[in-house]
Protein 1
Amino acid sequence: MQVMRKRVLRAEGLEIVDGQGNVRARIGVSSDDGSPFLSFHDPDGRVRARFGLSSDGSAGLAIGDADGKVRATLGLASDGSASLALGDRNGKIRAKFGLASEGSPTFGLQSKDGEMRYVFTLAQQGSPTVGLYDQEGKVRARLGLAAEGSPIIRLLSADGDLRAIIGLAADGTPVIRLLGKDGEVAWEAP
C-alpha cells in the first residue's frame, strides 16, 4: 500500500471485515482484465451483491440469495442497451425487462428451463409486438400493430423465414399472404 501526498490511499483491493474477521465487503479490480468491482458478502462469505464495470464499457449489478444463486441483475451494455432480469430459486432467469440500444422497450418471459418464450416489444415508432418462441429460442409467431395501427400476425418457420401474414390493411381490408420457402408469395387474398 502506498500513501500519496494528497491523502489518497492507493491499493489493489480493500476488504471490510466484521467483528469476527469475516469479509463483508470488498473493493478491488478483477485479476482477469483489471475491471473494478464492489461486492457485499453475508456472514458466511457468500457474495450477495456485486457491482462492476467491464473492460468493454458495460456496467452491472447482480444480487444473489442466501444459496449463492443470482436472483436479479441490472445492466448497461456497451452498446447502450439496458436490462433488468429476475431469476427463480434455481438461478434461472424468468423475466427480463430492457431497452434496446435505440431505446425500444422489451419485456420477456422465460419458461422454467430458462428458454425465452414470450417477448413483448415496442418498436421505435411505438408499434407494440408480442413474440412467441419455440424450445430452440427462435421466434415462431409475432402479433403486433403496424405503424398506422392495423393488426398483423406473422408466422415464421423454424429457420426464421416469414411464411404467412394475416392482418388488416390501413383501410380495414383483410389480408392473407402465404409465402413459399423462397420468400415469394404462393397465395394471397384479396
Note: The first strand starts at residue 2 and ends at 3.
Protein 2
Amino acid sequence: MAAVQQPVTTYHNAAPVSNFRKIKVNLNALTRRPILIYQQSVERARPARRAVAKPQFVGFVTDLIVPDEAAVAPRPQAFLVEQSPNWTLPTHFHQEHQFQVFVAGGGTIGKNPVERLAVHYVSPHSGYGPLISGDEGISYFTLRAVGDTGAWYLPEQREHLQLRIKKQQAHATLASQVTLQELLSLPQPCEEILIPPDAGGLAAWLVRLPPGLAVPAPAMGEAGGGRFYVVTKGSLLMNSEELPGLATVFVSSDEALVLRAGAQGLEVLVLQFPAAAATSFVEAMAAATG
C-alpha cells in the first residue's frame, strides 16, 4: 500500500509589490487537489498601484493577487480599480467568472445604480455594462477564481462572444449600512444573504461580527468554486495576522474558514463562485474544440 501523503502547509512572505501576503497550500491525499488560501490588503499592495490610460478606460489599478499562470486552477486574481470621474467603461465581457465589489464613489452599472458594497457577478461571455462613474469617480474590486486578461467590447467584438453558452448575472446591494461604532457595539453576529445559493453554487453573503468573536463562515462552501472574502470594516484575523478593511482573501472550496473578528469587530463580504469557476473556462473551451 502506498504511503498516505499528509497535508502540508507552506507560507511565502512576499514584498508588497509581489502582491501575495501569504499563500497557504495543502495537498489533499485523496484528490491531490491544492487547497489554497491567498490573502492581501490594499495597504500592502499600494506600491503596485499604476496609472492606466486606454481608449476605453482611464484611472488607476492596484494588483492584490496576481494569478500564477503555471499553476493548476483555481488561479485567483484580485485587483482594485479606481475609475476616473464621469468616465464610461463600455459594455464588454470576459472569459472567466467574475465578482465586482464597489467600495467608493458612485455611478451605474447597466441599469443598476451603484451603492457602497454593491456586489455584481457575471459569468463568462456575458456582456455587462456600461459602467459609468459619477463626479467622485468609482472604485471597485475585480475578483476571479481563475485569472483573465483584457476585455472584449461590444458590439465591436461581438464575433468573439460565445452565444450558445448559458449567461448569468446577479446584482445585490446591502439592506443596511453600519458605522464602525455600531459594529463595535453589535450584540450578536449578523448574516445577510445577498445572492441566494443556486444549484450551480453561486452565492454571496454579508457577515458582521462583534469584536473578538469567531464563527464558521456561511455553510455550503464545498458546493462552490472557491470564495473571496472582502473585509469592508473592522478586521479579520488570519494566520496570526490582522487584515484591515479592504483586505481580500481567496479560499478554495476544499478549505473551511473560521471568521475571527479583530478588536473593532468585523464586516466581511463572502463571495462564492459557481462550482464551474474552479476550472478555467478558456482551457475547457480549448480542450473541447481541440
Note: The CA atoms of residues 216 and 258 lie 4 Å apart.
Protein 3
Amino acid sequence: MKNTITTLSMFCFAMLISCCKDDTTTPNGDKPGTASYMEATINGEPWKACRRIGAVGEENLYAFYFPADGYLQMQCTDYCRKFQETSTSIFFETSSLYDTGYYPLSMFNRANFSLNAPSGCRYANVDSLNGWFYLKEINTEKKYMSGEFGFTGYCEANDSTITITEGRFNRIPY
C-alpha cells in the first residue's frame, strides 16, 4: 500500500511539473535547439509562449502568411504560466509584409497583448504609441519565420498601458 501511494504521488508530481514543456524540435522535425517559441519582457517580467501538452493539446504558436498579399497574422499564447491569473497571447496582423525587414506598427500593421479571460483586457498598439516588428527570416521551403518586436499597448477598458520589450519569435510555423 505504501509503495502504491508513493508511486501515485510521484506520478502526480511529474504531471504537475510537465504542464509546460518547451519544444526541442521545430514543427518540421529540425535539430534540437531550434524550437519554435515567442518570448518577451512585459512590464519588466519575462513572458514566453509555451506549448501545452496533455489531453487538450492546443496549438499555440502559429501564423498565416500570404506573401502575394503581404498579409500576416501571427498569434502565440501562453497557457501554462499565468500573467495576472489568466492565459495570455501576443498577436500581430500586417497588411504590407512582402519581405524581411523592419515594419513600424500602426493602424495597418498592428499588435496586441491579450489577457484571455472574460474580464481580460486587450492592450493594442495605437498610432500615438511606439511599436515595431522586425522580420529577419522567412523560410518558404520549411514554412516558418523568425524575428523581433516591441510595442506599448493601450487598454481602453481600464485606461492603462503595457510595455513589451525584448520580443523575439523563432521558427513560428505558417
Note: The mean pLDDT is 76.
